[in-house]
Design a protein that fits this description.
Structural class: alpha+beta
Shape: elongated
Largest sheet: 6 strands, antiparallel, barrel
Strand order of the largest sheet: 1-2-3-6-5-4
Helix content: 10-25%
Mean pLDDT: 79
Number of helices: 7
Radius of gyration: 54 Å
Strand content: 25-35%
Distance between the termini: 148 Å
Oligomer: single chain
Length: 480
Amino acid sequence: MSQPPSGDAPSREEPHQPQQPDQPQQPDQPHEPQWWTPGHPGEPDPPVPSPHDAPQPQPQPQPQPQPQPQPQPQPPYGPAAHGVPHPYGDTAVVPVSWQTPGDGLGRPAPEPSRLPVAAIVAGAVLLALVAGLLGGAAGGWWSARAGLGQPNRSVSLPTPTPGTTSRSSSSIAGVAQKVLPSVVSIEVRGADGAGTGSGFVIRSDGYIVTNNHVVAGAKGGGTITVVFPDGSHEPAKVVGSDASYDLAALKVARTGLPALEFGDSDSVVVGDEVIAIGAPLGLQGTVTTGIVSALNRPVSAGESDSAPAFINAIQTDAAINPGNSGGPLVNLQGQVIAVNSAIARVPGTGALGGQSGNIGLGFAIPSQQARRTVEQLIQTGKAEHPIIGVLLDRTYTGEGVRVASESQAGQPPVSPGGPADKAGIKPGDVITKFNGRPMSDSDALVVAIRSQAPGDVVTLTVRSGGKERTVKMTLQASSD
Protein backbone atom coordinates (compact mmCIF):
# COMPACT_ATOMS: atom_id res chain seq x y z
CA MET A 1 0.00 0.00 0.00
CA SER A 2 1.40 3.39 -0.92
CA GLN A 3 1.99 5.90 1.85
CA PRO A 4 1.07 9.55 1.78
CA PRO A 5 3.84 12.23 1.83
CA SER A 6 5.74 12.59 5.15
CA GLY A 7 4.21 14.89 7.80
CA ASP A 8 0.74 14.86 6.24
CA ALA A 9 -2.25 13.02 7.59
CA PRO A 10 -4.04 10.84 5.20
CA SER A 11 -6.54 12.84 3.15
CA ARG A 12 -10.23 12.04 3.68
CA GLU A 13 -13.26 13.31 1.92
CA GLU A 14 -15.51 15.22 4.20
CA PRO A 15 -19.11 14.05 4.21
CA HIS A 16 -21.72 16.30 2.71
CA GLN A 17 -23.13 18.71 5.27
CA PRO A 18 -26.78 19.75 5.07
CA GLN A 19 -27.57 23.43 4.64
CA GLN A 20 -28.25 25.49 7.70
CA PRO A 21 -31.85 26.38 8.40
CA ASP A 22 -31.15 30.12 8.24
CA GLN A 23 -29.98 29.87 4.64
CA PRO A 24 -32.52 30.08 1.87
CA GLN A 25 -33.49 26.72 0.52
CA GLN A 26 -32.73 26.11 -3.12
CA PRO A 27 -35.23 24.11 -5.05
CA ASP A 28 -34.11 20.61 -5.68
CA GLN A 29 -33.29 20.02 -9.30
CA PRO A 30 -33.97 16.63 -10.72
CA HIS A 31 -30.74 15.04 -11.80
CA GLU A 32 -29.57 11.88 -13.35
CA PRO A 33 -27.39 9.59 -11.24
CA GLN A 34 -23.65 10.25 -11.49
CA TRP A 35 -21.90 6.96 -11.45
CA TRP A 36 -18.25 6.95 -10.38
CA THR A 37 -15.82 4.54 -11.99
CA PRO A 38 -12.31 3.86 -10.50
CA GLY A 39 -9.47 5.07 -12.66
CA HIS A 40 -11.57 7.57 -14.54
CA PRO A 41 -9.26 10.10 -16.23
CA GLY A 42 -8.97 13.39 -14.41
CA GLU A 43 -10.05 12.09 -11.03
CA PRO A 44 -7.77 10.78 -8.21
CA ASP A 45 -8.12 7.36 -6.78
CA PRO A 46 -10.08 7.39 -3.55
CA PRO A 47 -7.89 7.44 -0.40
CA VAL A 48 -7.51 4.13 1.36
CA PRO A 49 -8.17 4.42 5.11
CA SER A 50 -5.37 3.23 7.47
CA PRO A 51 -6.08 0.34 9.75
CA HIS A 52 -4.97 2.62 12.64
CA ASP A 53 -7.63 5.13 11.91
CA ALA A 54 -10.65 4.89 14.09
CA PRO A 55 -13.82 4.37 12.19
CA GLN A 56 -15.82 7.49 11.91
CA PRO A 57 -19.58 7.42 11.81
CA GLN A 58 -20.84 8.37 8.43
CA PRO A 59 -23.71 10.84 8.50
CA GLN A 60 -26.69 9.73 6.49
CA PRO A 61 -27.77 12.09 3.77
CA GLN A 62 -31.01 13.85 4.47
CA PRO A 63 -33.88 12.70 2.28
CA GLN A 64 -34.84 15.27 -0.26
CA PRO A 65 -38.49 15.80 -1.13
CA GLN A 66 -39.11 14.58 -4.62
CA PRO A 67 -42.10 15.08 -6.94
CA GLN A 68 -44.26 11.99 -6.95
CA PRO A 69 -44.63 10.50 -10.46
CA GLN A 70 -47.62 8.47 -11.60
CA PRO A 71 -47.47 4.83 -10.57
CA GLN A 72 -45.79 2.69 -13.17
CA PRO A 73 -43.62 -0.36 -13.20
CA GLN A 74 -40.02 0.55 -12.26
CA PRO A 75 -36.78 -1.24 -12.89
CA PRO A 76 -34.63 -2.22 -9.90
CA TYR A 77 -32.42 0.54 -8.62
CA GLY A 78 -29.11 0.90 -6.86
CA PRO A 79 -25.55 0.14 -7.97
CA ALA A 80 -25.92 -3.58 -7.45
CA ALA A 81 -28.52 -3.67 -10.15
CA HIS A 82 -25.81 -2.82 -12.65
CA GLY A 83 -23.14 -5.12 -11.18
CA VAL A 84 -20.99 -2.19 -10.03
CA PRO A 85 -20.29 -1.64 -6.30
CA HIS A 86 -21.03 1.92 -5.33
CA PRO A 87 -18.31 3.59 -3.25
CA TYR A 88 -20.90 4.88 -0.83
CA GLY A 89 -22.94 1.73 -0.40
CA ASP A 90 -26.62 1.43 -1.24
CA THR A 91 -27.68 4.87 -0.01
CA ALA A 92 -27.02 6.72 -3.25
CA VAL A 93 -29.69 9.14 -4.43
CA VAL A 94 -32.30 7.39 -6.58
CA PRO A 95 -33.28 9.14 -9.83
CA VAL A 96 -36.71 10.70 -9.81
CA SER A 97 -37.79 8.69 -12.82
CA TRP A 98 -37.02 5.47 -10.95
CA GLN A 99 -38.85 6.24 -7.76
CA THR A 100 -42.06 4.43 -6.86
CA PRO A 101 -44.90 5.85 -4.80
CA GLY A 102 -43.92 5.90 -1.16
CA ASP A 103 -41.34 7.71 0.89
CA GLY A 104 -38.45 9.80 -0.37
CA LEU A 105 -36.03 6.85 -0.38
CA GLY A 106 -38.04 5.01 -2.98
CA ARG A 107 -39.52 2.47 -0.66
CA PRO A 108 -42.89 1.44 -2.12
CA ALA A 109 -45.97 2.39 -0.18
CA PRO A 110 -48.27 -0.40 0.91
CA GLU A 111 -51.00 -1.18 -1.62
CA PRO A 112 -54.49 0.04 -0.70
CA SER A 113 -56.75 -2.63 0.58
CA ARG A 114 -59.32 -3.95 -1.92
CA LEU A 115 -62.76 -5.39 -1.27
CA PRO A 116 -63.29 -8.93 -2.47
CA VAL A 117 -65.40 -9.27 -5.64
CA ALA A 118 -67.89 -11.43 -3.81
CA ALA A 119 -68.46 -8.65 -1.28
CA ILE A 120 -69.11 -6.12 -4.05
CA VAL A 121 -71.61 -8.41 -5.80
CA ALA A 122 -73.39 -9.16 -2.56
CA GLY A 123 -73.66 -5.46 -1.82
CA ALA A 124 -75.10 -4.71 -5.26
CA VAL A 125 -77.71 -7.48 -4.91
CA LEU A 126 -78.69 -6.24 -1.48
CA LEU A 127 -79.02 -2.69 -2.77
CA ALA A 128 -81.24 -3.89 -5.66
CA LEU A 129 -83.49 -5.82 -3.26
CA VAL A 130 -83.87 -2.82 -1.00
CA ALA A 131 -84.66 -0.54 -3.97
CA GLY A 132 -87.27 -3.02 -5.24
CA LEU A 133 -88.95 -3.23 -1.89
CA LEU A 134 -89.03 0.54 -1.54
CA GLY A 135 -90.35 0.97 -5.10
CA GLY A 136 -93.11 -1.61 -4.57
CA ALA A 137 -94.14 -0.01 -1.33
CA ALA A 138 -94.22 3.43 -2.94
CA GLY A 139 -96.24 2.11 -5.91
CA GLY A 140 -98.76 0.42 -3.63
CA TRP A 141 -99.10 3.58 -1.58
CA TRP A 142 -99.65 5.67 -4.71
CA SER A 143 -102.16 3.20 -6.19
CA ALA A 144 -104.15 3.19 -2.99
CA ARG A 145 -103.97 6.97 -2.82
CA ALA A 146 -105.11 7.36 -6.47
CA GLY A 147 -107.89 4.80 -6.14
CA LEU A 148 -106.23 2.29 -8.53
CA GLY A 149 -106.15 -0.59 -6.16
CA GLN A 150 -109.39 -2.19 -7.42
CA PRO A 151 -110.97 -1.63 -10.90
CA ASN A 152 -114.27 0.18 -10.92
CA ARG A 153 -116.49 -2.00 -13.11
CA SER A 154 -119.30 0.52 -13.07
CA VAL A 155 -117.41 3.18 -15.07
CA SER A 156 -118.79 3.80 -18.61
CA LEU A 157 -117.12 5.60 -21.53
CA PRO A 158 -118.57 8.85 -22.85
CA THR A 159 -121.21 8.44 -25.54
CA PRO A 160 -120.13 9.99 -28.88
CA THR A 161 -122.13 12.94 -30.10
CA PRO A 162 -124.65 11.81 -32.73
CA GLY A 163 -123.49 12.68 -36.27
CA THR A 164 -125.02 12.72 -39.71
CA THR A 165 -124.26 10.89 -42.92
CA SER A 166 -125.57 13.65 -45.14
CA ARG A 167 -122.97 15.46 -47.17
CA SER A 168 -122.92 18.40 -49.51
CA SER A 169 -124.03 17.36 -52.98
CA SER A 170 -120.89 18.96 -54.46
CA SER A 171 -118.49 17.05 -52.18
CA ILE A 172 -116.84 13.81 -53.24
CA ALA A 173 -118.92 11.92 -50.69
CA GLY A 174 -122.09 13.62 -51.94
CA VAL A 175 -121.30 12.77 -55.55
CA ALA A 176 -120.49 9.16 -54.62
CA GLN A 177 -123.83 8.80 -52.81
CA LYS A 178 -125.59 10.03 -55.94
CA VAL A 179 -123.69 7.89 -58.46
CA LEU A 180 -123.13 4.57 -56.63
CA PRO A 181 -126.74 3.27 -57.01
CA SER A 182 -126.32 3.38 -60.81
CA VAL A 183 -122.98 1.53 -61.02
CA VAL A 184 -123.04 -2.25 -61.48
CA SER A 185 -120.61 -5.13 -61.56
CA ILE A 186 -120.59 -7.44 -64.57
CA GLU A 187 -119.66 -11.12 -64.39
CA VAL A 188 -118.87 -12.95 -67.61
CA ARG A 189 -118.42 -16.67 -68.17
CA GLY A 190 -117.39 -18.13 -71.48
CA ALA A 191 -115.36 -20.80 -73.22
CA ASP A 192 -112.12 -19.06 -72.31
CA GLY A 193 -112.95 -18.66 -68.62
CA ALA A 194 -114.56 -16.07 -66.37
CA GLY A 195 -113.97 -12.38 -65.78
CA THR A 196 -115.44 -9.30 -64.17
CA GLY A 197 -115.87 -5.70 -65.15
CA SER A 198 -117.99 -2.65 -64.42
CA GLY A 199 -120.86 -0.80 -66.05
CA PHE A 200 -123.49 1.84 -65.35
CA VAL A 201 -127.18 2.32 -66.03
CA ILE A 202 -127.81 4.78 -68.84
CA ARG A 203 -131.58 4.30 -69.19
CA SER A 204 -134.11 3.46 -66.50
CA ASP A 205 -135.67 0.73 -68.65
CA GLY A 206 -132.64 -1.53 -68.20
CA TYR A 207 -129.92 -0.35 -70.61
CA ILE A 208 -126.35 -0.53 -69.32
CA VAL A 209 -123.06 0.74 -70.79
CA THR A 210 -119.77 -1.12 -70.53
CA ASN A 211 -116.62 -1.88 -72.57
CA ASN A 212 -116.67 -4.28 -75.48
CA HIS A 213 -113.65 -6.15 -74.10
CA VAL A 214 -115.54 -6.80 -70.84
CA VAL A 215 -118.28 -8.84 -72.55
CA ALA A 216 -116.33 -10.19 -75.53
CA GLY A 217 -115.69 -13.46 -73.68
CA ALA A 218 -119.39 -14.29 -73.68
CA LYS A 219 -119.54 -14.73 -77.43
CA GLY A 220 -120.27 -18.24 -78.55
CA GLY A 221 -122.63 -19.29 -75.80
CA GLY A 222 -121.28 -17.55 -72.72
CA THR A 223 -123.30 -15.82 -70.02
CA ILE A 224 -123.40 -12.28 -68.68
CA THR A 225 -124.71 -11.46 -65.20
CA VAL A 226 -125.25 -7.95 -63.84
CA VAL A 227 -124.80 -7.52 -60.08
CA PHE A 228 -126.57 -4.47 -58.65
CA PRO A 229 -125.44 -2.46 -55.61
CA ASP A 230 -128.03 -4.19 -53.39
CA GLY A 231 -126.48 -7.57 -54.23
CA SER A 232 -129.26 -8.73 -56.56
CA HIS A 233 -128.37 -10.44 -59.85
CA GLU A 234 -129.90 -10.19 -63.29
CA PRO A 235 -128.91 -11.91 -66.55
CA ALA A 236 -128.07 -9.56 -69.40
CA LYS A 237 -127.73 -9.72 -73.16
CA VAL A 238 -125.65 -7.66 -75.58
CA VAL A 239 -127.79 -5.45 -77.82
CA GLY A 240 -124.83 -3.97 -79.64
CA SER A 241 -121.04 -3.69 -79.44
CA ASP A 242 -118.22 -2.02 -81.31
CA ALA A 243 -114.65 -3.27 -81.06
CA SER A 244 -113.22 -0.17 -82.72
CA TYR A 245 -114.61 2.12 -80.00
CA ASP A 246 -114.44 -0.57 -77.26
CA LEU A 247 -118.05 0.04 -76.25
CA ALA A 248 -121.05 -2.25 -75.69
CA ALA A 249 -124.71 -1.80 -74.69
CA LEU A 250 -126.43 -4.40 -72.46
CA LYS A 251 -130.09 -4.96 -71.58
CA VAL A 252 -131.58 -6.42 -68.38
CA ALA A 253 -135.22 -7.15 -67.70
CA ARG A 254 -135.71 -4.42 -65.12
CA THR A 255 -137.34 -1.02 -65.08
CA GLY A 256 -137.22 1.96 -62.77
CA LEU A 257 -133.45 1.80 -62.47
CA PRO A 258 -131.56 4.98 -61.42
CA ALA A 259 -129.76 6.19 -64.55
CA LEU A 260 -126.75 8.47 -64.97
CA GLU A 261 -126.51 11.25 -67.52
CA PHE A 262 -123.66 12.06 -69.85
CA GLY A 263 -121.76 15.31 -69.39
CA ASP A 264 -119.91 17.35 -72.01
CA SER A 265 -116.39 15.98 -72.41
CA ASP A 266 -115.51 18.85 -74.77
CA SER A 267 -115.70 21.25 -71.83
CA VAL A 268 -113.28 19.22 -69.69
CA VAL A 269 -109.89 20.84 -69.02
CA VAL A 270 -106.69 19.51 -67.53
CA GLY A 271 -106.80 19.73 -63.75
CA ASP A 272 -110.54 19.14 -63.35
CA GLU A 273 -111.38 16.88 -60.40
CA VAL A 274 -112.88 13.53 -61.34
CA ILE A 275 -114.19 10.41 -59.58
CA ALA A 276 -113.84 6.84 -60.83
CA ILE A 277 -116.35 4.25 -59.61
CA GLY A 278 -116.39 0.54 -60.34
CA ALA A 279 -115.47 -2.96 -59.21
CA PRO A 280 -111.68 -3.30 -59.39
CA LEU A 281 -110.65 -6.92 -58.82
CA GLY A 282 -114.31 -7.66 -58.12
CA LEU A 283 -114.54 -5.16 -55.24
CA GLN A 284 -117.90 -3.63 -56.09
CA GLY A 285 -118.64 0.01 -55.29
CA THR A 286 -115.02 1.18 -55.08
CA VAL A 287 -114.62 4.97 -55.30
CA THR A 288 -111.32 6.67 -56.21
CA THR A 289 -110.55 10.28 -57.02
CA GLY A 290 -108.07 12.22 -59.09
CA ILE A 291 -107.81 14.86 -61.76
CA VAL A 292 -107.81 15.06 -65.52
CA SER A 293 -104.12 14.65 -66.35
CA ALA A 294 -104.26 15.14 -70.13
CA LEU A 295 -106.59 15.24 -73.12
CA ASN A 296 -106.53 13.69 -76.60
CA ARG A 297 -104.25 10.78 -75.72
CA PRO A 298 -104.13 8.33 -78.64
CA VAL A 299 -104.65 4.94 -76.99
CA SER A 300 -105.10 1.50 -78.47
CA ALA A 301 -107.21 -0.59 -76.10
CA GLY A 302 -109.52 -3.58 -75.95
CA GLU A 303 -109.00 -7.25 -76.65
CA SER A 304 -110.53 -7.68 -80.08
CA ASP A 305 -109.02 -10.18 -82.48
CA SER A 306 -110.58 -8.50 -85.50
CA ALA A 307 -109.73 -4.83 -85.06
CA PRO A 308 -107.92 -2.74 -82.47
CA ALA A 309 -109.76 -0.11 -80.47
CA PHE A 310 -108.55 3.42 -81.09
CA ILE A 311 -109.47 5.92 -78.38
CA ASN A 312 -108.92 9.66 -78.28
CA ALA A 313 -108.70 9.26 -74.52
CA ILE A 314 -108.98 11.42 -71.43
CA GLN A 315 -106.06 10.62 -69.13
CA THR A 316 -106.56 10.59 -65.35
CA ASP A 317 -104.55 9.75 -62.25
CA ALA A 318 -107.62 8.43 -60.42
CA ALA A 319 -106.85 4.84 -59.43
CA ILE A 320 -108.10 2.48 -62.15
CA ASN A 321 -107.36 -1.24 -61.89
CA PRO A 322 -108.44 -4.41 -63.71
CA GLY A 323 -112.20 -4.64 -63.13
CA ASN A 324 -112.75 -0.88 -63.41
CA SER A 325 -113.23 -1.22 -67.17
CA GLY A 326 -116.67 -0.04 -68.27
CA GLY A 327 -117.29 2.01 -65.12
CA PRO A 328 -118.01 5.75 -65.18
CA LEU A 329 -115.55 8.63 -64.73
CA VAL A 330 -117.70 11.48 -63.39
CA ASN A 331 -117.26 15.15 -62.61
CA LEU A 332 -118.27 16.86 -59.37
CA GLN A 333 -121.82 17.24 -60.69
CA GLY A 334 -122.15 13.46 -60.97
CA GLN A 335 -122.21 13.53 -64.78
CA VAL A 336 -120.39 10.89 -66.81
CA ILE A 337 -117.58 12.60 -68.73
CA ALA A 338 -115.86 9.37 -69.82
CA VAL A 339 -115.99 5.56 -69.71
CA ASN A 340 -112.97 3.95 -68.04
CA SER A 341 -111.30 1.66 -70.53
CA ALA A 342 -107.54 1.16 -70.19
CA ILE A 343 -104.52 1.60 -67.95
CA ALA A 344 -100.85 1.95 -68.77
CA ARG A 345 -98.41 -0.77 -67.74
CA VAL A 346 -94.68 -0.53 -67.13
CA PRO A 347 -92.95 -2.73 -69.73
CA GLY A 348 -91.87 -6.06 -68.29
CA THR A 349 -94.28 -6.05 -65.34
CA GLY A 350 -96.82 -8.77 -64.87
CA ALA A 351 -98.39 -8.33 -61.46
CA LEU A 352 -101.93 -9.35 -60.53
CA GLY A 353 -101.94 -12.55 -62.54
CA GLY A 354 -100.30 -11.08 -65.61
CA GLN A 355 -102.09 -7.73 -65.43
CA SER A 356 -100.72 -4.44 -64.25
CA GLY A 357 -102.19 -2.47 -61.38
CA ASN A 358 -102.71 1.24 -61.10
CA ILE A 359 -99.66 3.44 -61.69
CA GLY A 360 -101.58 6.70 -62.02
CA LEU A 361 -102.07 6.43 -65.78
CA GLY A 362 -105.70 5.61 -66.60
CA PHE A 363 -107.49 6.27 -69.87
CA ALA A 364 -111.20 6.76 -70.56
CA ILE A 365 -113.40 7.15 -73.64
CA PRO A 366 -114.75 10.73 -73.80
CA SER A 367 -118.49 11.02 -73.17
CA GLN A 368 -119.22 12.71 -76.50
CA GLN A 369 -117.93 9.71 -78.38
CA ALA A 370 -119.45 7.23 -75.91
CA ARG A 371 -122.93 8.79 -76.05
CA ARG A 372 -122.99 8.91 -79.84
CA THR A 373 -121.76 5.32 -80.16
CA VAL A 374 -124.11 3.87 -77.50
CA GLU A 375 -127.13 5.54 -79.14
CA GLN A 376 -126.23 3.87 -82.43
CA LEU A 377 -125.69 0.50 -80.72
CA ILE A 378 -129.11 0.65 -79.00
CA GLN A 379 -130.86 1.76 -82.18
CA THR A 380 -129.15 -0.40 -84.78
CA GLY A 381 -126.75 -2.72 -82.99
CA LYS A 382 -123.87 -1.14 -84.91
CA ALA A 383 -121.79 2.05 -84.75
CA GLU A 384 -120.69 4.30 -87.58
CA HIS A 385 -117.08 5.43 -87.92
CA PRO A 386 -116.01 8.64 -89.65
CA ILE A 387 -113.33 8.21 -92.35
CA ILE A 388 -111.43 10.42 -94.82
CA GLY A 389 -110.84 7.65 -97.38
CA VAL A 390 -107.06 7.05 -97.40
CA LEU A 391 -104.61 4.25 -96.54
CA LEU A 392 -101.70 5.23 -94.31
CA ASP A 393 -98.03 4.31 -94.69
CA ARG A 394 -97.13 2.89 -91.24
CA THR A 395 -93.48 2.47 -92.19
CA TYR A 396 -93.02 6.24 -92.46
CA THR A 397 -91.02 7.74 -89.58
CA GLY A 398 -90.73 11.37 -90.61
CA GLU A 399 -92.75 14.37 -89.51
CA GLY A 400 -96.50 13.97 -89.86
CA VAL A 401 -98.42 11.03 -91.36
CA ARG A 402 -97.84 9.93 -94.94
CA VAL A 403 -100.53 8.61 -97.26
CA ALA A 404 -99.55 5.26 -98.78
CA SER A 405 -98.02 5.35 -102.24
CA GLU A 406 -99.25 1.94 -103.37
CA SER A 407 -102.40 -0.16 -103.04
CA GLN A 408 -102.79 -2.46 -100.03
CA ALA A 409 -104.84 -5.68 -100.13
CA GLY A 410 -106.46 -4.52 -103.34
CA GLN A 411 -107.47 -1.12 -101.95
CA PRO A 412 -106.11 2.07 -103.57
CA PRO A 413 -104.16 4.56 -101.40
CA VAL A 414 -106.87 7.21 -101.90
CA SER A 415 -110.48 6.01 -102.20
CA PRO A 416 -112.03 7.39 -105.42
CA GLY A 417 -114.82 9.85 -104.62
CA GLY A 418 -113.96 9.84 -100.90
CA PRO A 419 -113.42 12.94 -98.73
CA ALA A 420 -109.64 12.99 -99.30
CA ASP A 421 -109.98 12.50 -103.05
CA LYS A 422 -112.47 15.38 -103.23
CA ALA A 423 -110.06 17.58 -101.24
CA GLY A 424 -107.21 16.90 -103.72
CA ILE A 425 -105.00 14.67 -101.50
CA LYS A 426 -102.67 12.43 -103.53
CA PRO A 427 -100.75 9.21 -102.75
CA GLY A 428 -97.52 10.07 -100.90
CA ASP A 429 -98.82 13.35 -99.45
CA VAL A 430 -97.99 14.01 -95.78
CA ILE A 431 -100.71 15.17 -93.35
CA THR A 432 -99.05 17.33 -90.69
CA LYS A 433 -102.09 18.72 -88.82
CA PHE A 434 -105.72 17.78 -88.12
CA ASN A 435 -107.96 20.65 -87.02
CA GLY A 436 -104.81 22.58 -86.12
CA ARG A 437 -103.39 19.78 -83.92
CA PRO A 438 -99.97 18.41 -84.98
CA MET A 439 -100.01 14.75 -86.00
CA SER A 440 -97.04 12.66 -84.88
CA ASP A 441 -97.99 9.16 -86.05
CA SER A 442 -100.68 7.11 -87.78
CA ASP A 443 -102.55 6.16 -84.57
CA ALA A 444 -102.82 9.80 -83.55
CA LEU A 445 -104.50 10.66 -86.88
CA VAL A 446 -106.89 7.68 -86.66
CA VAL A 447 -108.14 8.52 -83.14
CA ALA A 448 -108.43 12.21 -84.05
CA ILE A 449 -110.68 11.33 -87.00
CA ARG A 450 -112.77 8.85 -84.94
CA SER A 451 -113.35 11.41 -82.23
CA GLN A 452 -115.50 13.25 -84.75
CA ALA A 453 -118.92 12.35 -86.09
CA PRO A 454 -119.78 11.47 -89.68
CA GLY A 455 -120.75 14.63 -91.50
CA ASP A 456 -118.42 16.87 -89.49
CA VAL A 457 -116.24 19.28 -91.49
CA VAL A 458 -112.55 19.11 -90.60
CA THR A 459 -109.41 20.97 -91.65
CA LEU A 460 -106.15 19.24 -92.63
CA THR A 461 -102.69 20.68 -93.32
CA VAL A 462 -101.03 18.70 -96.10
CA ARG A 463 -97.48 18.81 -97.46
CA SER A 464 -97.07 17.81 -101.09
CA GLY A 465 -93.95 18.29 -103.20
CA GLY A 466 -92.27 20.36 -100.47
CA LYS A 467 -95.20 22.77 -100.18
CA GLU A 468 -97.87 22.92 -97.49
CA ARG A 469 -101.51 23.70 -98.05
CA THR A 470 -104.71 23.61 -95.98
CA VAL A 471 -107.71 21.64 -97.16
CA LYS A 472 -111.22 21.05 -95.79
CA MET A 473 -113.33 17.93 -96.10
CA THR A 474 -116.55 16.42 -94.82
CA LEU A 475 -116.13 13.13 -92.97
CA GLN A 476 -117.82 10.12 -94.45
CA ALA A 477 -119.55 7.37 -92.42
CA SER A 478 -118.47 3.76 -92.40
CA SER A 479 -119.54 0.84 -90.20
CA ASP A 480 -117.96 -2.47 -89.25
